[in-house]
Amino acid sequence: MTIVQGPSRVSVRSAYLEQVRRIAPPELLDRDAELDELAAFCLDEHRGPYVWWRAPAWTGKSALMSTFVLRPPARLTGRARVVSFFITARLAAQDTREAFTTVLLEQLCELTGEELPIAAGEATREACLLDLLSRAAAACQAGGSRLILVVDGLDEDRGMTTGPEAHSIAALLPGHLPSGMRVIVAGRPNPPIPDDVPDWHPLRDANIVRLLGQSAHARDVERLGKSEIRRLHGGTQLEQDLLGLITAARGGLSATDLREITGADLAEIEDILHSVAGRTFTRRAGEWKPDEVYLLGHEEIHNAACRYMGPARLVDYQTRLHAWADSYREWPPETPEYLLRGYPRLLELKGGLARLTALVSEPARHDLMLALTGGDTAAITEVTTVQNLLLAAEEPDLGALAVLSARRNDLQDRNRRTPRTLPAVWARIGLPVRAGHLARGISYPDFRAEALACVGQALAETGRPEAATEFVEEAVIAVESAIPETVLSVATTIARAGMSSYAVRIIRDISDPAVRAAGLAAVAAEVPDRDQASTLCREAVESARCGEDPQSLALALITVAGTVSVLGDRRQAEALIGEGISTARKLDEYARCRALGSAAMTLVAMGDRDGGRRLTTEVEHIAGRLTDPDQRCAGFQSVISAAVEVGDVAWAERVVRDEAVEQLRDHLQGCRCRSAADAADFATAEHAASTISDHEGLFAALRYAAAAAIRAGEATCAERLTEAAEQAVRALRHWRELADVAVLVADAGDYSRARDLAIEVERLLRDTDTVVERAHERALIAEALAEVGDLDRARRLFAEVDAVVRRVTTGEFAAGHAEHLIACGLSVMGAEWALDLLAAAEVPVRGMTDPYMATMAYAILSRTCARAGGFDRARELLDASLDQARRVSPGRVSRAMTRVVPAALALGAAEEAVELARGVTHPGDRCSCLVAAARSAVRAGDAAACRELIAEAEVSLRTITSHAERAGPLANLVEALVLLGELDRAEEMAATILRPDWAAHGFSVVARARAEQGETERAERLARRITAPDSLAEALVGIAESVDDRKAARLVGEALALGEWTTALPVLLARWPDVVSVLAAAVLRDRGGGLF
């Protein structure tokens, strides 16, 4: 795909851009006037909507168009965004309507930041394409630019273009272009316009034709090239073989590859190739390996070669390619690049779907691609491509789709583990390509956007502004569908990279006025231009005042006041913070406490220590009146933070003594560490951090202090603090945070050590918990084998997994893994086995020292024990969980109870569970607990109790003002309403959820219920509103359970292409058990052996 803007090739990197490079000449001669005319067509308001550059073969059309796409004229910078497709037979699978749809969908999804749609039918994908074209054009117009579509080689469409069954690329080009979009097409005068293009279409308007004049350079190349083709075709056997293999392979073979296939001497091969290179053959550098590769120099040369050899000889050469490919099935490091990149496209074009499916299902091949590129983007793309090919069949091969789903899930899983800061390490040490592969491979869009922004910042700070801009533009696209918190993070990072215009653009797209105000203030603080920063601050204030929430207004005014003060406008800053304080004093006590605490710290930063002290005293009085433990703890955290800023540590220490809460003591030491680091007192910072008992808090403090020491140029202190931070991470075994240590090391200039740490992080994240993760999959496979009647193998596999789970020594993990295994194996292995496994899991749980984690671990054990029939022991475990909960710090006890309440419900202690739920103080967690009790009530047949609990949950929900915090509880309420049978109300509630992930879950639950009631069409319409792939897959599987086999197969096939293979497992077991056997064999084989 290709998306470019301006002459600096600022683009969304992709495989298709490399294909355009293979078409483009190294230098375009004598075409400056034509390039200028193309630019004028894009910009002139009175031109358009179409222009058709028409000329015979060998005129230089493709050279002109590819140069325009890769190196647009300078005046298009920031004013045009170009997407393109080059119809050509020289490159595999690039001359059909399907290829056109796929390539443009990929480009437009990158431009709009949306997920690539995986639709069951071609018509659906084409509808998606037209819809995306419209939205992309509107987005470009809103951003002050214009969408340009370039289609070259319209005459080379290999689809059916005549008669009533015509099915051409030209017919897909919209007749009415949206939002100022323009289309540039190029091709020969013949064949005529395809029959499926309507009479009114602009392509049939002769006035859009622009004749391209002959190029003497192109004519000379044509004459020499065709002459050489004839000579090679009639030459020695080796000359014929070289021509035949490169033609059959559709380009991309190196001289070494040709030596292996032909058995000829390398020097002789290179002599032949180099003697005609530039006319018959074009050389290109390999993308992943240094070897040069060869392809035919022009479409007409390729066509001539195909005519001279004939179909039979081409098939013979392709057979030799297959045999050669088979010799590399172990995928050693020396595997040729062609087998990783070009060969799959050849199989796609020639209909070798079975061979292609097997090829892209090979884990060893994808591991090699990861080693070469540093990411899994290419692997995931090729798997998705094959899934789409399988879905396009009349009857989808569910076995192949299931195997590919497992392969794609593996690739996505290892990318989900990629820390957002890790790609930036590679960028800082001078390896931006590896950084790009790693960042673009992150499957979750929010994390990908943050990673891309971090890479952009790293490149900007290391003196590579052009490369930085590329990544920042990608981050801007990726963040369009993100939650507001991610948008704020990305915008701040981009602003720090010196590209505030991009940051402001994405902040202004935030719909919530308060969040938008906070973002504008944060960006203003990073903008070097004071006038621009002041303008942003004024806009932030106006935005804050547009909101209806006084708490958000107060916090926004206080935040902006701090920024305005830094800019030097003290009078304005005092006015703003005064207004913020006045607004805060009208809030309820807890909200007032937090807002005034923030104001106290801002006053100190503005130089008003006395004002900050007075306000902190007021905050302390308010906090002392709070009775809710969570709120009281948070209120005194504000007091401690402000007291430290005022410089009165003794005051903060008194608060800690009076409250006697460990969480507050750690908070105080963290504040002392950060305050000392800001003052460059790194010895005090280190000492304060060393007294923090919570390992996560310890690491956060040390990381802050180390970064401050690096900025201050204190190399020795920085090294010591960084080493201490690394030790804290290794003690936690939180390997994602080790990436943050690598960032610190790179910032300090130790690139060798940073590289070693980055490699270690990648290895640890691949290896950590891999055995247990595979054990989870094996447990599911064992359960499936039992379902299809293979009990002996199921029991042996459960025994394998049991041995793995018993080796887990971390309490919370031991409990969770035992719960999963027992859920899968209870019916096969029996209650006695389950209770014995739980007893083994309890051993590491008893050794846990963190009350919060221990509370949740005991709750998991209790719930699982009850399900296994061990009710007396389950009661004891629940009591142990409640005992641990009494020692949990106030700020975390509410979240812990979300595990305890379901445990009580599983035990049958419904009244106790409801009492516990009502005692939860955090409104979101209380809502979740009440809904859990409501679901239990309706399952027990007590609809009245369910309704009462739902009503309580809704009251709790109304106290939550944050859309992000409301989303999860709302989705839980939707589930409860579905169980009650109130589907209309559930659907209405799902539509109010503003976080896409939770909204998708709500719609999925309702769609399944609609299908169960026979409303399958309505259910599918509802499901299609879901944009999250995993949730859409869940909805489709739910609908599939209620329709006939033919329809179900299409829905399940699409679900397998979208989500986890485990989602489809129940319906596969019920309807296609043979597919389960195929899937089980593949999963166990790919995970290092098993029972097959």
From TrEMBL:
Listed InterPro entries: NPHP3-like_N, TPR-like_helical_dom_sf
Record-given protein name: Nephrocystin 3-like N-terminal domain-containing protein
Domain annotation Nephrocystin 3-like N-terminal: ranges: 46-157
Keywords assigned: Repeat
